[in-house]
Amino acid sequence: MTQVALVTGAAQGLGLAIASRLFAAGYAVALTDLSLAAAQAAADRLDPSGERCLALRLDVSSKADFEAALQAVLARFGALHVAVNSAAMTLTTPVMQISPEEFDRVLSLNTRSIFVGCQVFGAHMAAAGYGRIVNMASLAGQNGGTATGAHYAASKGAIVTLTKVFAKELAASGVTVNAIAPGPIESPAVRAAVPAERMEGLLANIPVKRLGDADFLGDLVVQLARPEAYFTTGATWDVNGGLYMR
Ligand SMILES: NC(=O)c1ccc[n+]([C@@H]2O[C@H](COP(=O)([O-])OP(=O)(O)OC[C@H]3O[C@@H](n4cnc5c(N)ncnc54)[C@H](O)[C@@H]3O)[C@@H](O)[C@H]2O)c1
Ligand SMILES: CC(C)C1=CC=C(C(=O)O)[C@@H](O)[C@H]1O
């Protein structure tokens, strides 16, 4: 049976790279994003035949959208084995200038969405007796962030904790839950956040002196999604060029 994966925030950036590597590994993939048109364009590029890709609108701030997306995937592909919670917003407001409203907005989008995604997909996978969930955290959640805002860093730190909680809850049901904590990855978001004149300074600060590779993150997801990966759960996988060594 074809393995089936769903990725949130899959229209661009790391979510798209992850969806692409899952597709290359043979998965049927639901590419979901806030904009159906953007998700559809990405799905069309990946799989012009439309046989193994499905584009869906999934606003991760809506539990109803998660539930509807799950049902759409089951209707189309008959199963859901892998869910990747990648969508997030990255804000860089200095900590003393963040309003309570902006703080709530970032926590709600970045963290509550992971909580809801793990609940909705986790419940289905637990009932099916098998599943793999991967949550996108960040180096910022481990070291407090530098270029990114305090709300972003806090939202990503909470994802590491939520990943452990859901991993414990779902372990006996055959469902693993892991997180990936990237440092700066070659991506549109980093290029937008770091002007060319500041890139040299960023690279000088990274021990390996390079940005990370989004396709590698996709390949890491493919590995964590394998049935043989049953013994890693509740873990946070660091991919940060040595920026955070524990
Ligand atoms: N790029 C990096 O270097 C880096 C580093 C560490 C962690 N991350 C994490 O990786 C993930 C992807 O980052 P990226 O750099 O590709 O970001 P990005 O901004 O390029 O892509 C984010 C995607 O999420 C979508 N999205 C935004 N709000 C949404 C919503 N409410 N519902 C559904 N989709 C929504 C966007 O439309 C977009 O397609 C994020 O969780 C980010 O925090 C990225
Ligand atoms: C601002 C840029 C260098 C950057 C750093 C760290 C990230 C993270 O999530 O840890 C990125 O999202 C990214 O934009």
From TrEMBL:
It holds the Pfam family adh_short_C2. The keyword Oxidoreductase applies. The keyword Iron does not apply. Keywords: Oxidoreductase. InterPro entries: NAD(P)-bd_dom_sf (IPR036291), Sc_DH/Rdtase_CS (IPR020904), SDR_fam (IPR002347). Belongs to the short-chain dehydrogenases/reductases (SDR) family. This is SDR family oxidoreductase. It comes from Pseudomonas lalucatii.
